[in-house]
Design brief:
The complex is a heterodimer of chains A (about 110) and B (about 900). Chain A has about 110 residues and is an alpha+beta fold. Chain A has four helices and three strands; from the N terminus they run H-E-H-H-E-E-H. Chain A has one domain (about 5-105): Winged helix-like DNA-binding domain superfamily/Winged helix DNA-binding domain (Arc Repressor Mutant, subunit A), CATH 1.10.10. In chain A, strands 1-3-2 form a three-stranded antiparallel β-sheet. Chain B is built from 27 helices and 23 strands. In chain B, a hairpin with a 2-residue loop joins strand 8 and strand 9 (about 255-265). Classes of the chains: A alpha+beta (about 110), B alpha+beta (about 900).
Chain lengths: ~110, ~900
């Protein structure tokens, strides 16, 4: 299904979060660290935006949360992927790959 | 992987907006701390690290707003779901509970159904009669207009007075005269006596009613001498013409007069109630007298004006008229009364009182259910303690109990509506004529809302009571209590005892009310009306050919024939004729002139002037009677004679008066031989010589004093009523009615006949008293039954609770009578306290009955004493059964803990 490009950009953070959480339950800080680390420091996300996305995804039923204890024994909210989130990750990452490929081809061709 | 909803509920679901913000704050704090820690590890100072963490986080306030707006609807949905789920759970639990103890559920809901049913049935009457608007457009604009005389009494209108009012008022859009009379309609081979109303021009404009078929009156119908036309009711159209359009233009006979039917009014628009035909009054001409008060008047106030404004206006017009005319008019003032108040005014108090009584019954029913509920809560205390122990909050418990009582109330509500429907139908069968608009009764939405509202209030009150009893006190103690000592102990007995006392007190109020009404009714029924009431058959007929110059002779002949036929019927001992039925205020009443001798000639136009001389006037009801009338009625002759064959048409006219008039008019003289003129009633100016005095009769109202009466000879004067009544004294009524119906039709078949008995007529006059007595009596009986159950259950409870104590007493040698006495003492205490409170309350409450009682004081000691004795007796009886049970205790069984 073709989509509006701005929509795709807006959904980028969502896909990143879903992908990150596909490795297991994490608290928000861990998600931020993970994306930063995996992005090789290229992707720096404003934390507030990350949390907005987390809460939005939870509201949409793609992820769920639970209070737990962190490694240093503090109460932290752990997010994990739901079945719906997993399905969404599959379709969105497909779309993203095609999109990135298309954009890449255009830029390479010049 | 899906987290089970229970877990989600237990660990995650935010309970409030504050909770959402707090959760987010903790999450953010954690994030900042981790970030700062990581930055510090890379060499920043603590302060720098914290500052940098904050910078990198971005706008926290914005995030918080975003999350709250995102999650609040979600939270609310979740809470609602949670609530629904718990309600469903409680509902299932309640149903299980009731299945386990159906006895309680059945008794409680039947009791509630009785209370709700009684209240709803009465409310449906109140609704139909008082609350529902009249079936006319903008009914609030309709007013009944009255003149007011020098004594402040309401007066009908005289034609010229009405004309002034119609011309000079500024507040009425339309105003019309109408009267009540009868037609003897013959059409299609049937003869029927129907109620007919002569109406003036704007009558249908006032009501804003248009015919559903045909047309209304046109100006040419409303002229002097115009041929007679009529608009008929939907009901008469159906009865006479089977709803055929051929009715329009049909010519029917009203006696000898031909009447053309021009229209049919839609059903439900009959005014005055029960009218079947309306005809223009104008063809018959106007009466120029200012004192011929023959017309009812209704009006419609202009848009935006109130009946009060109309009253002010009417009062102004009539006072101005009186100022101009002086003694010539007796109308001093006037008033406009909203039509609905006019129609229902009298019964409003009666109905509200009965509604109040039914409300008391509902309270008594609730007290019974409350009592049962408390007993049940005591039994269920350990169950509730367990529920609290595993984490049910008081709120949740209250919800559970509220749902249980709601379930009971729902069943009670449905049952109540069924009872109310049946009860309303029963009221319709009783059909007290005293209740106007009774035909409009139905269970409409207002009644249903009322029933549901009453039931909901009951459910909430009972639920809160159960919650209070169920969750109070030390639950741990309840848990550790053994079954043997179950039940809330003394406190529970005190609450239940108080409920029973309240119940008894309210029952006393109802019973005393019923007792007073009963005694008043008995008094009323033993009043001697002054004439024979048993074995009296009345045939109502009409012989209306009053335009025939030979009318009087033909009429006399006709009734002579009827009288002979009546005499021939087996069982008929005497026969009389009158122009008004027994137990009515005569066909007319008015002022007569006292003349010096029978030779005086008076012209009709002189009468108004002569009336001003108060020493030569008197006031009496007027009735024409045949010579046999007094014997048939059993009215004794006090002095002189009654009419006889010597009193002939055209000869000197005789009058008979009653003792009340003789005493009032000629206190120290012999009334016989006095001469009066009553020509203003029927237009016959011939003087009347008094030839006899007869006994007084009470008319229309048993409780009222006998009114002064003048009887004139049926063979000598036409009177002014079309209707005539053949009165037959007979041993047995039913066969006489059957025989007379056959035999009278042979004389003339085109005259309609109705047969009544005097007992019916009198019965109708006391209908309001009987109606009220019946309802309050039934309520009182049901209340007594419920209160008896209450006493029985609370004393049984006491016996069960004090089983150990009683057993010990028995073991120590107490005799059975001693044990019975011990238990009975409790019953006595309850009933005495209840009786005392109820007695005092009744003293206040019965004052409301004052206007419904005849010769019985509202504090009648006999009614009070007998009710209190009956109540205490019944209460004792109700305690005696459990007392016997207590006396039969086997001590060892109880002590072992059975």
């Amino acid at each position: 299904m073709p989509r509006d490009a701005s929509d795709l950009l807006h959904g980028t953070l969502d896909v990143l979060i879903l992908k990150t959480l596909s490795w297991g339950a994490m608290h928000g800080y861990a998600v931020a660290e993970w994306i930063e680390h995996r992005g090789g420091g290229e992707l720096v996300i404003v934390d507030a935006a990350l949390y907005k996305a987390l809460h939005r995804l939870e509201e949409g039923g793609a992820i769920t949360s639970e209070w737990g204890l962190s490694d240093n024994n503090r109460r932290a909210k752990y997010y994990s992927l739901t079945a719906r989130g997993r399905a969404r990750l599959r379709t969105e990452s497909e779309t993203w790959k095609r999109y990135a490929h298309a954009v890449g081809r255009i830029i390479e061709s010049s | 992987m899906r987290v089970p909803s229970g877990v989600r509920r237990a660990f995650h679901m935010p309970a409030s907006t504050g909770q959402i913000a707090r959760d987010l704050e903790e999450e953010v704090d954690f994030h900042m701390a981790m970030r700062a820690q990581s930055l510090a590890r890379r060499g920043l100072t603590d302060d720098e690290a914290v500052a940098e963490a904050h910078r990198r986080f971005g706008d926290v306030q914005d995030l918080r707003d975003y999350c709250v707006s995102l999650e609040v609807p979600h939270m609310q949905r979740a809470q609602l779901r949670e609530r629904m789920y718990s309600v469903l759970q409680d509902l299932r639990f309640a149903l299980r509970q009731f299945r386990r103890s159906p006895g309680f559920a059945i008794i409680a809901s039947v009791t509630l159904a009785l209370g709700v049913g009684a209240t709803t049935a009465i409310f449906s009457v109140v609704n139909g009669v008082i609350l529902r608007p009249l079936p006319f457009s903008r009914p609030g604009q309709l007013v009944q207009l009255w003149g007011i005389d020098a004594n402040g009494k309401h007066l009908h209108f005289a034609d010229p007075t009405f004309d002034h009012l119609a011309a000079e008022n500024h507040t009425l859009r339309a105003v019309a005269e109408y009267n009540n009379g009868g037609f003897s309609l013959s059409a299609n081979g049937t003869v029927a006596r129907v109620n007919a109303s002569g109406v003036s021009k704007q009558f249908f404009d006032v009501l804003d009613v248009r015919p559903e078929l045909g047309r209304s009156f046109a100006p040419e119908d409303q002229q002097k001498g115009a041929p007679m036309v009529a608009v008929i009711s939907h009901g008469l159209w159906m009865r006479l013409f089977g709803g055929s359009a051929a009715a329009i233009g049909a010519i029917v006979k009203n006696g000898p007069t031909s009447v053309t039917i021009i229209g049919v009014l839609p059903a439900g628009s009959e005014f005055p109630a029960g009218t079947d035909a309306w005809y223009p009054r104008e063809p018959f001409g106007e009466d120029a007298s200012y004192t011929a008060h023959n017309w009812n008047v209704i009006g419609r106030v202009k848009d935006g004006l109130t009946p009060d404004a109309a009253t002010h206006d009417v009062s102004m017009v009539l006072r101005r008229l009186h100022a101009a005319l002086g003694e010539a008019t007796w109308t001093f003032d006037g008033t406009a009364i909203p039509l609905r108040d006019q129609i229902v005014g009298k019964v409003k108090v009666l109905l509200l009182l009965i509604l109040g009584a039914s409300g008391v019954l509902l309270l008594i029913a609730c007290a019974n259910v409350a009592n049962l509920l408390i007993a049940r809560m005591a039994v269920r205390q350990s169950e509730i303690a367990v529920r609290v122990a595993i984490g049910a909050g008081r709120g949740r418990l209250a919800q559970q109990l509220l749902i249980e009582t709601s379930l009971l109330a729902t069943v009670g509500c449905v049952g109540g509506i069924v009872i109310a429907a049946a009860g309303t139908r029963a009221l319709l069968v009783l059909r007290p004529t005293l209740i106007p608009r009774v035909g409009e009764l139905s269970l409409d939405w207002r009644v249903l809302v009322f029933a549901i509202g009453v039931s909901a209030a009951t459910a909430i009150a009972l639920g809160l009571l159960a919650a209070w009893r169920g969750t109070r006190g030390d639950l741990r103690a309840a848990l550790s209590q053994s079954q043997r000592t179950q039940g809330g102990g003394g406190a529970s007995y005190r609450v239940r005892g108080s409920l029973v006392v309240l119940q008894l007190a309210m029952t006393v109020v109802l019973l005393i009310g019923a007792g007073l009404l009963g005694r008043s009714f008995a008094r009323l029924m033993t009043i001697d009306p002054g004439f024979r009431t048993h074995g009296m058959v009345v045939a109502a007929t009409a012989y209306d050919d009053s335009h025939d110059p030979d009318y009087l002779a033909k009429r006399s002949l006709y009734y002579q024939q009827l009288t002979e036929r009546a005499r021939a019927i087996r069982g008929v001992t005497s026969v009389g004729i009158s122009d008004a039925p027994p137990f009515s205020n005569g066909s007319s009443n008015g002022t007569f002139l006292v003349l010096d001798n029978a030779g005086v000639k008076i012209a009709p136009n002189d009468m108004d002037a002569l009336f001003r001389d108060k020493t030569h006037t008197g006031y009496a009801t007027y009735r024409t009677a045949s010579s046999g009338y007094f014997r048939a009625m059993g009215i004794p002759i006090v002095a002189g004679r009654v009419f006889d064959d010597g009193d002939r048409a055209g000869g000197p006219q005789a009058a008979v008066i009653n003792a009340a008039l003789a005493h009032k008019q000629w206190p120290n003289e012999n009334a016989i031989g006095k001469v009066i003129d009553f020509g203003n009633i029927d237009g016959d100016m011939t003087p009347l010589t008094i030839v006899g005095v007869v006994g007084d009769t009470r008319e229309e109202d048993l409780a009222a004093d006998p009114a002064a009466a003048v009887y004139v000879d049926f063979d000598q004067r036409t009177g002014n009523s079309d209707e005539m009544y053949v009165i037959m004294a007979a041993a047995d009524e039913a066969p006489v009615i059957a025989a007379a119906r056959r035999s009278f039709t042979d004389v003339r078949s085109d005259v309609p006949m109705r047969f009544l008995t005097v007992e019916d007529i009198i019965g109708r006059s006391v209908e309001s008293q009987r109606f009220m007595l019946l309802l309050v009596g039934v309520f009182g009986a049901v209340a007594l039954l419920l209160a008896t159950l209450g006493v029985y259950s609370v004393i049984s409870y006491l016996v069960a609770q004090r089983g150990r104590e009683i057993s010990i007493r028995v073991a120590l040698g107490a005799s059975a009578p001693e044990i019975v006495g011990l238990v009975l003492k409790q019953g006595v205490v309850l009933s005495l306290v209840g009786a005392a409170i109820g007695g005092v309350a009744a003293l206040a409450a019965t004052r409301l009955l004052k206007n419904f009682l005849y010769q019985v004081s509202t504090t009648d000691p006999i009614a009070f004493a007998s009710v209190l004795v009956v109540l205490c007796g019944v209460a004792l009886l109700a305690s005696y059964v459990p007392a016997r049970r207590a006396a039969a205790f086997e001590p060892m069984d109880v002590l072992r803990g059975g």
